[in-house]
Prior knowledge:
about 170 residues, alpha+beta, 6 strands
Amino acid sequence: MEATTPKRRSRLNGKRHAYEPSIELLYKAVQIDDATGCHVWTRAKMPKGYGRIHIKGKDHLTHRLSYELHVGPVPDEMFVCHKCDNPSCINPEHLFIGTIQDNHADMVQKGRNPRGEKQWNARLNEDYVRVIRLLKWTNKETAKLFGVTPDNIKHIRAGKRWAHVL
Length: 166
């Protein structure tokens, strides 16, 4: 006996779902933020806040789908990026096409890149960096004290790392 998956049926008319990607379908789950102009997706989201919708057996990122429906296809190897930095926003006026490098440059320009102790793997904090710069020990001795490499200490003292710390 072969197990079959039951077909999904609508609660309203008993017919199988046959959603087509459309602007109307997207905007059934959007709340417009008057202060920012963001069109915020209110249903299913990915862990980092990007909207997600399931259509015809496939998951779609809502901001990408919105761009494709409003503007046109997204070229291969390109990303749909947010000018507003709100991953749930699907407003086509807040979206632009770019490479991963463009998206990273946008993040850095806006100061959203994690620096210093905000990085997930940081072993030092700003107070330690200030102490490192004041200590007159060798790089090797200082590195051993703080649990980092002598190269790291050298770059901190030269201002190449942790440059934002005065």
